[in-house]
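request received
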Amino acid sequence: MGCVSSKQFKGAAEHEDPAVLAKETTFSVSEVEALYELFRKISHSIFKDGLIHKEEFQLALFRNSNKKNLFADRIFDLFDLKRNGVIDFGEFVRSLNIFHPETPLADKISFAFRLYDLRGTGYIEREELYEMVLAILNESDLLLSDEAVEQIVDQTFRQADLNSDGKIDPDEWKAFASKNPALLKNMTLPYLKDITMAFPSFVLNSGVDD
Amino acid sequence: KPESMNAFALISRSQGFNLGNLFEK
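response:
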């Protein structure tokens, strides 16, 4: 795409160069530019400051800026690489790159581990898994007895916690996820392969001076 | 049957992971 106008990034000059982001990720320069369209839309939905705030992320995900969800919170926190409470364009592109269909499975496995390691201890602990099961049951309006939830968690630990130390370490997670690839389905977004078709406006508009 | 459920399989169905929604216009 040789027709990228710097004008497109004017007013958002703090955003990283698409060429740099393309070099670091699976995305091409024109795909990064298309992602900028998406980023601009989300980051201007409420605060209009060119950064994605939690409320804007929730609005884009759930059509509701107030909807709380443990897993959306985790995704937001992991996207927020600088840990400053907002997602900038570079963070958006680098994080979405994990979800690209062509990103190596090992990267997806590692991202999922960090997602589920709620307290950042380096392990997925039993209490964390219990908390996440309660969250998904609550989200799905499913009622299960405490005993049933314990059984689900116990069963999972029997399969995943190979050294039976009560926590799942990164190697155990890697083995478990490799054996159960369906668990990583949510780590791939087919949309990312056709991003320039989904958001062509940048490509169409680029180079147009007004 | 709870005993045959995999906790991670359950969790992975959360709407919170549905990043495809970000792409909807």
